[in-house]
Amino acid sequence: MVFITGPRQVGKTYLAKQIMGKFQNPQYLNFDNFTDRNIINEMSWVQNSDILIFDEIHKMKNWKNYLKGVYDSKKSGQAILITGSARLDTFRQSGDSLAGRYFHHRLNPFSVKELASKITAYEAVDKLNNFGGFPEPILQSLNLPAEDAVIEAERWKNQYYTDLIREDILEFSRINEINTMKTLVEVLRLKVGSPLSINSIAEDLQASPNTIKKYINILESLYVIFLVRPLHKNIARSILKEPKIYFYNTSYIKGDAGIKLENTTAVCLLKHVQYLYDAKGANYSLNYLRTKDGKEIDFVVAKDDKPLQFLEVKLSSKQLSAPLLYFSARYPEVESVQLVYNLHQEEEKRNIKLLKLSDWLAELAA
């Protein structure tokens, strides 16, 4: 089986229906649809279906056991595709393991690489900074007058997060926790790109650290936020251990142009390493570095826990980053790159490459 997961409204159903077009007798079943739900429960789909697509089936009780049974009894050559907004491990119902029966692919928002087929890479970064990479607002930004696109994007964003809290988060939390969760989201919108202190947030919200951890796990499981953790293997022990937080939707964060640029870069890098992991089987990861005395590199791309690239993101500065110089000198075998959004001329100084951020992002794997 193939599982496709990702944020709400990122295009999973659209992709599934595109895939349907490649089969002779496809069957699409959405557990949220009453008629489809009856077909699922009774297993009364057309028997000659060459692909079965189950959407949002993780909402079904004992869904793991159900899928195991469907898979183990399927006819030869029948494909099975599962889509959903939450991670496979989010709903921890009891049931037999699906290990060895599926491949997991994560669908992320649009990247610079994808948009660069329509507009320049530089313009693509600007669009992602202002509209985020979700299909509806970003495509409207390409097709509507600028003022109309901004209005429609704001309407979409407001409705998106209202629905997310009302429907998805309520599946994880009690009603009396929703206000705390909403406040936490507002706090996190201001903390993008900074090491996350659970204790500090817990104190601000007058909640226990364990409660805050639980809420952050829920937001991560629902693909609202993602965490970039520090690389600690094969690097000196002085590295801090707190993760940094980013949002899948850059337009939702509160911060200046530099923070938005860092968030957009983080989303593109996440898509890059997850594609290499999910589709190619390569053990890539996205990390960062920060020492106790404050020397920080925005991102590290690692393979098998070994750093391959040190990446620093800048709006316009050509002055070499001091932390990048520090780590580059100590780990000369690692490629060190300063990615600059507004850069007229690419060059290399002291073993550090100064490259145009938009062009570099457009060359990523996904």
Would you mind describing this structure in some detail?
The protein has 366 residues and is an alpha/beta fold. The chain has helices at 12-20, 34-42, 63-73, 112-115, 121-131, 135-143, 146-168, 178-188, 198-205, 209-221, 257-280, 322-330, 357-362; strands at residues 2-5, 26-30, 51-55, 79-84, 103-106, 225-230, 244-247, 284-290, 296-303, 306-314, 335-340, 347-349, 352-356. Strands 7-6-8-9-10-11-13-12 form an eight-stranded mixed sheet, sandwiched between helices. The protein is globular, with a radius of gyration of 22 Å.
Q: Within the largest sheet, what's the order of strands?
A: 7-6-8-9-10-11-13-12
Structural class: alpha/beta
What count of structural domains?
2
Number of strands: 13
- The coarse silhouette is globular
The helical percent reads: 40-55%
Mean pLDDT: 91
Question: Compute the gyration radius: what is it?
Answer: 22 Å
Strand content: 15-25%
Major beta sheet summary: 8 strands, mixed
**Total of DSSP H or I helical runs spanning 4+ residues:** 13
What's the N-to-C terminus distance? 22 Å
Order of helices and strands: EHEHEHEEHHHHHHHEEHEEEHEEEH
Residue stretches low in confidence (pLDDT < 50, at least 5 long) are none
